[in-house]
Amino acid sequence: MYDIHSHILPGVDDGAKTMDDSVRMARVAADNGTKTVVATPHRKDVTEGFSVGYVHELVSKFKTQLAAEKVDLKIVLGMENHLDLDLPDALENGTALRLNGSRYVLVELPFFEYPNYVEDVLFKIQLMELTPVLAHPERIEAIQKDLELLAAFVRRGMLSQVTAGSIVGHFGGKVKRLTRAMLKRGLVHVIAADAHFAQGPRSPTLTPGYAAAVEIVDEEQASEMVLATPEAIISNEPLEIEPPTEGGSRWRWWWFGRS
């Protein structure tokens, strides 16, 4: 399996704190069948506290440590890029990173607001011949209120990455139901761990999320979400994505009345 969203680098953001934590996370991922993990520290944390050069050096040290401890896991670098007005320029000047240097960019929409510049910034990124991969849209309030917003983004050529834990209910019943509705409508392209710790609901294990997805879509589609599609992203290969199916009535936040 291939995981394109992980906070596995030590001491950079709210994920792993020490190199030992990172190695433990890597071992769990490898034992769970993951071949490659994209380390995706938050852009805001890298920009404010470190530098892109620093995280490149950190990845090199991490790889050396994994080799020394015989952990069979490939690590490449990306970034979880919060969406703001500066993001296109940051991608241009290299302070915002693509996934393994590919045409694909992991973009996190604002959690609790929907600024009027969101669509414009995403369009500018696409004009740069880059493809936004929307991080955990199932946990973004604007999409929780109106799933058609995500459907519109997908129709415009963007990709959607859900967190494995969302499918199994680690973020509550509301998010679980929405994620499963997204799967049924063809609004999910990648399942990733968004790992922060070695154990618990934010661990780097994709298997439970994959198994839950198999129950909703079929095995072939679920496999593509952890194998072919994320591998293509990491390898900078083009992807042809099926348009989402049409929904019924719009999902509204009040619909999720019970957890």
Helix-strand topology string: EHEHHEEHEHEHHEHHEHHH
Whole-angstrom Rg: 17 Å
- Report the sheet-strand fraction: 5-15%
Q: Give the helix level as a range of percent.
A: 40-55%
Using the coordinates shown, work out and report the CATH topology. TIM Barrel
Distance between the termini: 30 Å
Overall outline: globular
The structural domain count equals 1
Keyword list:
259 residues, alpha/beta, TIM Barrel, five-stranded parallel beta sheet, three-stranded parallel beta sheet, 12 helices, 42% helix, 13% strand, disordered C terminus
Describe the fold and architecture.
This protein is α/β, with parallel strands linked by helices. It has helices spanning 19-31, 43-49, 52-68, 87-93, 118-127, 141-145, 147-155, 164-168, 173-184, 207-214, 219-226, 228-234, and strands at 2-6, 36-39, 74-77, 81-82, 104-108, 131-135, 159-163, 190-192. The protein has a 5-stranded parallel sheet, with helices on both faces. A 3-stranded parallel sheet has the order 1-2-3, sandwiched between helices. It has a single domain, classed as Alpha-Beta Barrel (TIM Barrel), CATH 3.20.20. 42% of the residues lie in helices and 13% in strands. Helix 1 links the parallel strand 1 and strand 2 (36-39). The radius of gyration is 17 Å and the shape is globular. It is built from 12 helices and 8 strands. Helix 10 (207-214) packs antiparallel against helix 11 (219-226) and helix 11 packs parallel to helix 12 (228-234).
